[in-house]
Protein: Transcriptional regulator
Organism: Halovivax ruber
Amino acid sequence: MGDTRVEILEAAVDILIESGYDALTTEAIADRLEISHSGVHYHFETKDDLLIALIEEYLTDQLEAKVAFDGPPEKQLPKLLEFRIRGAKTIQQLEIPPPSIQLLAATGGSDDALRQALDTLFEAYVAELTATIRDGVESGVFDTEAPERTAWTLAGLIEGAEVRASHDGSPAPFVWGIEAYVLPALYVDESPTLNVEVDDG
Amino acid sequence: MGDTRVEILEAAVDILIESGYDALTTEAIADRLEISHSGVHYHFETKDDLLIALIEEYLTDQLEAKVAFDGPPEKQLPKLLEFRIRGAKTIQQLEIPPPSIQLLAATGGSDDALRQALDTLFEAYVAELTATIRDGVESGVFDTEAPERTAWTLAGLIEGAEVRASHDGSPAPFVWGIEAYVLPALYVDESPTLNVEVDDG
């Protein structure tokens, strides 16, 4: 049993988190799974193929997580935000650069396929935020004339938190920025506090 | 005349912007300046030494630019913001990753000295924003109980704009986020529009 392709991707994430991008080799993956190098190469011809699949798996996870906490927009928006802020918190605890930075790092942004996969990931997240904000405007719980720009603003602050966390800094000020500036202006009724504990920097 | 050390740093910035991190070699710098490789090595023993000096030069430039537009806090804050948003706009026009990402890219965040230099750069910028916001609170033009967190929020949005620009995206939504959410809550009187033209994404 077990899907080798999925096992390879999971091993790749573990290696990336534990030891960073340089340690991510087909050899390391093969050793960890106790399979042959050619077994890894059968599924992913190049490291780039692997990285792109990795990003696309993350994307699927995110969308699935979103579906899991489907609810009214005023409840769904905090969940969507918390989902990625927890990611930033994990990054801070592990004291590693976020995978997206590590992957970009691999190529200095010069690998178009990889870059495009990262863009797709980020844009899918912004699209979820935008849809949720639009729903909330329609149902009267949110007030904004620019749902998509608001989504970008929120996503940008979370990206800031991730980058900050990757520099051993606290994501706390960015979470605060969302709570203090964006949500109070967006929510017609009282705005929520995000349910994430982040240590002060 | 001419300080070779400064010329090397300027050539390094040009190469980084034109051709990216991989192209940044002592050979490329020596060729561009028509000096010997050892001339480059005399000033910077390793590529890391060069990169760290580069970041510190940027830092100096930023602080000098800040002094150049010294004024009352309500005028100075937009200038400080515009200064870095213009950087994001340049990044978008050049279609390159921002130098900070390129430099992080070089090491995957694993080079502590380089990472620390980048942190120092970012923190100096946040410190300038914080001082300006504190001044404004004292003189009664700004209203916030958390000048430093507000500064992080603003800096984070600009970082978001830079990262976005490096993915061929427009910094516009982040600029809008600053104008629509943060400045109106911060300014006691009418908040300013930032004087930067950024194309819509």
Notes: The longest helix of chain A spans residues 112-138.
